[in-house]
Amino acid sequence: MPIIAASQAKEEYDVAIVGSGAGGGQMAYTLTLAGLKCVMLEAGRAYDPATQTAMFHRPDQTPLLNTPTPDKQMGFTDATVDGGWEIPDEPYTQASDKPEEQFHWWRPRMLGGRTNHWGRMSLRNGPYDFKPRRRDGLGFDWPIGYDDVEPYYTKVEMLVGVFGTNEGLENTPNSPEGVLLPAPKARASELYLQKSVKPLGIPVISIHRAVLTRPLDADTIPAKLHPGNTWAQKIVADSMRARGACFWATDCHRGCSLRANYQSTTVHLPPALATGNLDIIPNAHTREVTLGKDGKATGVLYIDKTTGKEERVKAKAVVLAASSGETVRILLNSKSATFPQGIGNTNGLVGKYIMDSVGGSVGGQIPALENLPPYNEDGAGGPHMYIPWYHYKDQAAGKMNFSRGYHVEFNGTRAMPGGRNPLPDDLARGAYGTKFKEEARRYYGSFVGYTVRGEMIAKEHSFTEIDPQVKDKWGIPVLRWHWRWSDQEINMVEHGIRTFSAMIEAMGGKVRMRKGATAKSVIDAGGKVIHEVGGALMGDDPKKSVCNGWNQVWDVKNLFLCDGSPFPSNADKNPTLTIMALAWRAGDHIVDQAKKGNL
Amino acid sequence: MSHDKTPSSPRLPRRTVLKWFAAVAAATQLPDLGSTVEAAAAAPSAKGYGMDPDLSKFYQPGDFWPLTLTPAQRETVTTLADLILPADHLGPAASAVHVPEFIDEWVSAPYPTQQKDRDTLLPGLQWLEEEAQKRFSKKLSALSEQEKSAIADDICWPADARPEFKKAAAFFQKFRSLAASAYYGTEAGWKAIGYIGNVPLVKFDGPPPEVLEKLGIEQTVK
């Protein structure tokens, strides 16, 4: 990849993009294929999944059997390098000492950001998800609706490749005919669950994930994505042809050297770089957006981590796509006479309303799944099925004690063993010798796990701000987090525990939970699902929001926020697909403004 | 990789195989997968592998930090690991797939979790040898299977262990868990437990008919 050093940057660019993940990657793709000259600043190092992915490592071929360590916090083979919850040179602080009031902030410091490591769940927000307040009076509505975003969901799905089925369920949108790739066959535990919970009225359907179950149609898709732009079509077609289809092995969290799943580094950045319109500066830790006398952004001030020196790039427009937390931090640290509280923050709303997804898991053991004839169920490196939220009518009728939905994700049963004891102590009891090995084989594949992925409602008490004292290694003030789940989320997890227990029992299994576990002890700590959104909400009133429906900061017309930070709500649908769709949409808007000479 | 005899792996078109091979070779540099020898010279520091290790390489115990068990401790580990995971109809013994080396790597690692485990495991090993001397006046590895079991039976399940064996039972549980974590992370361990995978396939067929039949289910994704 043509990556440049700070000293090689051009005098001025059309657009400076901070961040190289889903939002930054999509923005670079959209802008460069439209002919705009862009520079991308990435706080971490360059990264090439083709040569740096631990594809086939067995646990015994990795240090400490691939278990998590402070150096590799999701295990050795996880794609993330130089990142995690804690990064030695880049602290953040908590306003409270209480664990339940703390936010855990995952930061990858590498090209492609979080897209190198993720579950590839690619669910569209439904119509309700853009207007939640209209339904239940809580949180905020988006200034845009499903119809505004739908064309971009379709484009993103065609570009990155998403498998799944159209089921026509409430608030669980279909994609247009022919857009989704074929869903993979279901695994035994998924089918057994599907059959067992049907009498309970629980739908188990194919999930949507950004994994190529067959090669993308490079002959027809590029023309649909870039009508009238044959130059762009050729570049995109070449990139699509270079991607392999899934070979039904290895966990997607490792990344994919075949480019069979979506990573910014395998899908967005190669065609963007092929345009010749993109320079990427890695190890560029952005501190501020710089402001001109006319009140417009003039570029970005960053620290070159390789030299420790302050550097600047100039651009006609700036896109922040650095993750909600980092984007908020940059905005708040961009102080000037015009914006003493930070750029774009005249109403004091930058940093407010941070949300994560609600998480919480219940495990079970299913005797029917014991001693199954061994078969290969690696599949598409993650779940094939899921349970979408299905209680919309009950909630509308006021029958539930929480107002928003959750979907259910499943853990693999016959997943790659090793690195942890496959036979829990309470089942092994005193077994050793051949007896232990027989019991391990008997139980292998019989453990299931079900996880809440739910919507948290934006609240005043969950926000982030600049810590007045603490700075990172480069002298940049750090974030201080304020966090609390509300009864809404606790009640949701309680419902999850009850429902999952009923599901496990319907399969004839036993629930495996710690004695005395409650929703409060089961719910994941803030940030642990790594779906942080909010902090710079979009809205239709400049007094009550930070940016408009084009991700454009009200106070600074040439500054756009294209990660999760503008999300006014955090639907149970994982945020990545929506981040990409909104970035593409905002990118089209930027191109349009550039053509009109408005940048 | 020696997965070509996997029953569920269909014959792949040559072109596909070559394409995959190139991708895999690029990603992994294909080292000699078969050998896991003790590497004394390769240990650069006791600092951990850092946040940006080379993910394209395959590793073995000793690559990142020195192994620290004494030959005597290693012998105790080997004897106990093979008692828990012996050679039998399901596969080789723990020591044949380098489980003792992994336990050595674990207790020698510079991270907090492993250092805490070291404080349980090393005294446990010492207790075992003392107990072997006390009961049979021999070192653990010299005991008959029956004699080894006599000790193991007293410590194999904490809930049933007599008060004087509680601490040793906690050690046994930790050791068994660690040995199993290592054993089932090897190719032989995968065979022993019934895992088939980590091998490229042309297509994914889902569960085979005998699995569907046993569970009374049908494939619903067409």
Provide the fold topology.
The complex is a heterodimer of chains A (599) and B (222).
Chain A: E1 13-18, H1 22-33, E2 38-41, H2 49-52, E3 93-94, H3 127-130, H4 132-136, H5 146-160, H6 188-197, E4 205-206, H7 221-225, H8 230-241, H9 264-274, E5 278-281, E6 284-291, E7 297-304, E8 309-320, H10 324-333, E9 352-355, E10 358-365, E11 385-386, H11 392-396, E12 406-411, H12 425-428, H13 434-443, E13 447-454, E14 463-471, E15 477-482, H14 487-506, E16 510-512, H15 519-522, E17 533-535, E18 559-561, H16 576-595
Parallel strand pairs in A: 1-2, 1-8, 2-5, 3-15, 8-18
Antiparallel strand pairs in A: 4-11, 6-7, 7-8, 9-17, 10-13, 10-16, 12-13, 14-15
Helix pairs in contact in A: 1-9, 1-16, 5-16, 8-9
Chain B: H1 14-28, H2 71-84, H3 99-108, H4 112-136, H5 145-155, H6 166-183, H7 187-193, H8 209-215
Helix pairs in contact in B: 2-3, 3-6, 4-6
Structural class of chain A: alpha/beta
- Average pLDDT taken over every residue of chain A: 97
Q: For the CA atoms, what is the radius of gyration of chain B?
A: 21 Å
The percentage of residues in β strands of chain B lies in under 5%
- How many domains, in number, for the residues of chain B? 1
What CATH first level of the largest domain in chain A would be assigned?
Answer: Alpha Beta
* Total helical segments of chain B: 8
Cα-to-Cα separation, first versus last residue of chain A: 29 Å
Largest interface, chains and sizes: A-B, 87 and 91 residues
Pick out the low-confidence regions of chain A.
none
H/I helix tally of chain A? 16
Biggest sheet character of chain B: none
In round numbers, the mean pLDDT of chain B is: 85
What's the CATH topology label of the largest domain in chain A? FAD/NAD(P)-binding domain
Overall shape of chain B: it is globular
Residue share in β-strands of chain A: 15-25%
